[in-house]
Amino acid sequence: MSREVTPIADQLRARGMRVTAARHAVLEWLADNPHATVEHVHDGISQRLGSISKQAVYDVLKACLEADLVQQIKPAGHPARFERRTGDNHHHLVCRSCGRIEDVDCAVGARSCLNPDHDHGFEVDEAEVMYWGICGACRTAATNAPGDDHSRQ
Amino acid sequence: MSREVTPIADQLRARGMRVTAARHAVLEWLADNPHATVEHVHDGISQRLGSISKQAVYDVLKACLEADLVQQIKPAGHPARFERRTGDNHHHLVCRSCGRIEDVDCAVGARSCLNPDHDHGFEVDEAEVMYWGICGACRTAATNAPGDDHSRQ
DNA sequence: CCGATAAACTTGAATCAGTCAAGTTTACGA
DNA sequence: TCGTAAACTTGACTGATTCAAGTTTATCGG
């Protein structure tokens, strides 16, 4: 059900990138499965592609990252996650326990928290807002069976 | 020049923690060297203490973290950093190139960006704001000798 | 359509921060 | 001053990510 405005192949070509089965599969799959880890992506597209190395997934994601076709989220202590939604300054809600991520629109309105009052000589290009907490599933799991987090989303 | 309000030993005892040479050294050193990595702390206090294992530094920092005596910052792609300033909702400016960190007071005023508009069933306990950019030193280094980041602060 | 070639992919080793585990030492209350 | 749990030492291990060398393939010029 990926309702792409532009076909994936065109998006790649528009940036001068080669169109490969791996790239197509990753981008298509990611559109339907936001906040996926490399592991998730690999599992997800291996079926559709027959097989693909994990390194290729890293390569594809890195290329798409640089081409601004995907965005990366790296929550401390959890593997990186990827999503197709880029450039709209939205933030993320991260579960401390399982690493699950949800999107959150900027609570203070677009770009309001993007400029620090004092930049210490830095050239700032991004403001990242991350809300940390425990998701519903993990809270339930914790009360039912204390001490066992059912980890990994 | 650590101008502690309360002596370090007392701060530890106040939380029911044992006062050890390692803990004292770490906390004292950290007061004068904010945003240090485990490596930095280890190097810094090894001299003052004669010797200490890196694992002990991890242990001390973990204990102090749980006792709220230090705060941890984990910038994506860089080793964790520690500081004594806690509980005042300040944010951080991180250099993409060398990982150097500077403090920034909340641009939108205390706690204004702490509550996401939709919590997706999460129990949110922290909002983390991280500004990413390139610090002055790395910008200079990049223009002088392109392609060589003089990394690691 | 066909080959050349640089980009993309495969495989497997390496790195790096951090964690685990078993044994020894030490702070501190009795 | 003694016993004990907490803290420290040493060294192995993990898991995500990166590096590197060799092979395959998309695309472009002919």
Describe the protein.
The structure is a homodimer of 153-residue chains. Chain A is of the alpha+beta class. Chain A folds into two domains: 8-73, Arc Repressor Mutant, subunit A; 88-144, Dna Ligase, domain 1 (2-Layer Sandwich), CATH 3.30.1490. The first copy, chain A, is 35% helix and 18% strand. The first copy, chain A, contains five helices and five strands. Chain A has helices spanning 8-14, 21-32, 38-49, 54-66, 136-144, and strands at 71-73, 81-83, 91-95, 101-104, 123-134. Chain A has a three-stranded mixed β-sheet with strand order 4-3-5. In chain A, strand 3 (91-95) and strand 4 form a beta hairpin. In chain A, helix 2 (21-32) crosses helix 3 (38-49) and helix 3 crosses helix 4 (54-66). The radius of gyration of chain A is 18 Å and the shape is globular. In chain A, 24% of the residues are buried. Residues 146-153 of chain A have low confidence and may be disordered. At the A-B interface, strand 3 and strand 5 of A face strand 4 and strand 6 of B. The structure holds a DNA duplex (30 and 30 nucleotides).
Topology pattern of chain A, helix = H, strand = E: HHHHEEEEEH
Number of E-state strands of chain A: 5
**Distance between the ends of chain A:** 23 Å
Detail the poorly predicted runs of chain A: 146-153
CATH structural architecture of the largest domain in chain A: Orthogonal Bundle
Q: Largest chain-chain contact?
A: A-B, 37 and 37 residues
Class derived from helix and strand content of chain A: alpha+beta
Mean pLDDT of chain A: 84
Main pleated-sheet profile of chain A = 3 strands, mixed
Radius of gyration of chain A: 18 Å
How many domains make up the 3D coordinates of chain A?
A: 2
Helix content of chain A: 25-40%
The rough form of chain A would be described as: globular
